[in-house]
Write a structure and sequence with these properties.
By secondary structure, the chain is mainly α. The protein has 5 helices and no strands.
């Protein structure tokens, strides 16, 4: 049964596209948008805070690559106690 449903969907889609073939205006709607239009549309759908964060991270990355140094705060997560040597017991007498 699923074969018949899939076959009818494929035949219907091909028939629709064949009927639209002669109408250039409808084919223009079916063509993929340019990359710039697609990116612009996707960027516009993002929330404002996500766009600001993405732009900020992109600028930080660009500055780091251009200057060769870290332009943002250090990402060092070690505490001072993490840097101390390990305790190996009480000193021998």
């Amino acid at each position: 049964m699923s074969f018949l449903i899939r076959a009818s969907l494929v035949i219907g889609a091909l028939s629709y596209l064949a009927a639209q073939r002669d109408d250039p205006a409808s084919m223009a709607r079916l063509q993929a948008p340019s990359m710039q239009q697609a990116v612009s549309a996707a960027w516009g759908t993002l929330p404002l805070e996500t766009r600001e964060k993405a732009a900020s991270e992109g600028v930080d990355t660009l500055v780091r690559q251009v200057t060769g140094s870290v332009a943002v705060a250090s990402r060092d997560t070690l505490a001072e106690t993490d840097r101390r040597p390990a305790w190996h017991g009480v000193d021998g007498r």
